[in-house]
Amino acid sequence: MAVARAESVAVVGLDGYPVEVEVAIAQGLPAFNVVGLPDASIQESRERVRAAVASSAEEWPLQRITVNLSPAHLRKAGPGFDLAIALGVLAARGRVAQERLRELCLLGELSLDGSVRRVRGALASAMAAANAGKRAILLPRANANEASLVGGIEVLPVEHLAQAVRFLRGECVLDPPTVWRAVETVDDLDLADVRGQELPKHALEVAASGGHNLLLKGPPGGGKTMLARRLPGILPPLTHTEALEVTQIYSVAGLLPEDSGLIAQRPFRAPHQSVSLAGLVGGGGLAPHPGEASLAHRGILFMDEAAEFRRDAVQALRGPLEEGSITIVRGRWSVTYPCRFQLVAATNPCPCGYSGDAVRQCKCLPGRLAAYAERLSGPVIDRIDLQVEVDRLKKREIFGREPGEPSATVRERVVRARERQQERLAPFGVATNAEIPPPHLEEACRLTPEAKRAIEASVDTSGLSARGVHRVMRVARTCADLSGAEKVDFRDVQDALSFRMLDRKR
Prior knowledge:
Blueprint: E1 2-12, E2 15-26, E3 31-35, H1 40-43, H2 45-55, E4 64-70, H3 82-92, H4 98-102, E5 104-106, E6 109-110, E7 116-117, H5 122-131, E8 136-140, H6 144-147, E9 154-158, H7 161-168, H8 198-210, E10 214-217, H9 224-228, H10 240-253, E11 268-269, H11 277-281, H12 292-295, E12 300-304, H13 311-315, H14 318-323, E13 325-329, E14 334-338, E15 342-347, H15 366-374, H16 378-382, E16 386-389, H17 395-399, H18 407-425, H19 441-445, H20 449-462, H21 466-483, H22 490-498, H23 501-505
Parallel strand pairs: 3-4, 5-8, 8-9, 10-15, 10-16, 11-12, 12-15
Antiparallel strand pairs: 1-2, 2-4, 6-7, 13-14
């Protein structure tokens, strides 16, 4: 019996785990079995691998072939083991050198003609291979740029199984991946396009500066969506660490563009109101996948018409808004995805949209009003730092010709405020005011006596919860950072309290 071994990686959640692919060829009736807790896509690899080997001018052994994916307790999913299985079969037949094979990590899906197709999670796989001490990773050329983001491991891109065989025999040299440089695209949506709405625009600047969640409430046509879609244009660029985190999530989700490398733009995810619970927070059946909350990591999750979303989906965001991560537990697996996003929710005051409007009369019955208000429960509202009413535009604002402040100018102030935060919050291990842990709030916020008394008084006058008090302190700290102040004064607290107006109305 001939036995060969190859190395590959199984991706579970965002983490890669080394997998040894053992191939045994023995005498007996022709058969091809895969064991080691494979899913259906791996079982189907038997036909893909057999056809790909034949298309590469190699002879398929008419013997009993057994493939074991070790460790057996780890569930394997996806077609990324095809390349390792095919080369393992050829190594067991002596067509390629086993010593050369064991130096590499192998990753790739095979088509019937032998082409090597891109797979999900190549970045996580390259990280796992580097941590396991592998010299190089052999993978599809379409995945080479993302894998090259990992240091300490050589990236060997291939386009066809026959090319991989020739390389392992020493008959050819593989071209290295092209040098790819992340370039941040320019957003065409400018804040200068927004007329009027000075308070919501100020709230947008505060939200961008401190990483705060934002709720925009008002009648249709007031500009809620227009404001929300201009928030990415005033956010600071991603740091290298943040960009790597975002790229890894999109790699696992299979959403990286062809031949792309590092993602340089902050994500902006706007799921439809019909999104399922698993679609919003992640999960799935046999294989877990990141949801919209994780795809918005280090960026923005925009929920337009938030009151129209499924109640269970909205409630499921309570934990991620506090923790910045979400753990999904099923019977056979448990995964944790990061989801440190800014929530921007826009909602009408009632189903028809005109409750409290001075011009148009609301036609909603009291029962519908109450049911609509319950869609965004108190615990969810309490986790949103900035709550702003977006009023109907006046005639002079609609037809006025004076442009607003451009996004580039606002972004400069936001970047300076973020720099002040990073310097001050470095000892606490966080980067923005929205992330300040409660035990360090007073030390990090640096309240003046007048500011502290104003917050204490607001507990009785506004009915703030303990969480609400903490969020007011964080927002006040951001307002002070925007003005360049060292300490939070009474004016900053008043500014922060003005953004809790919806709390007072509940």
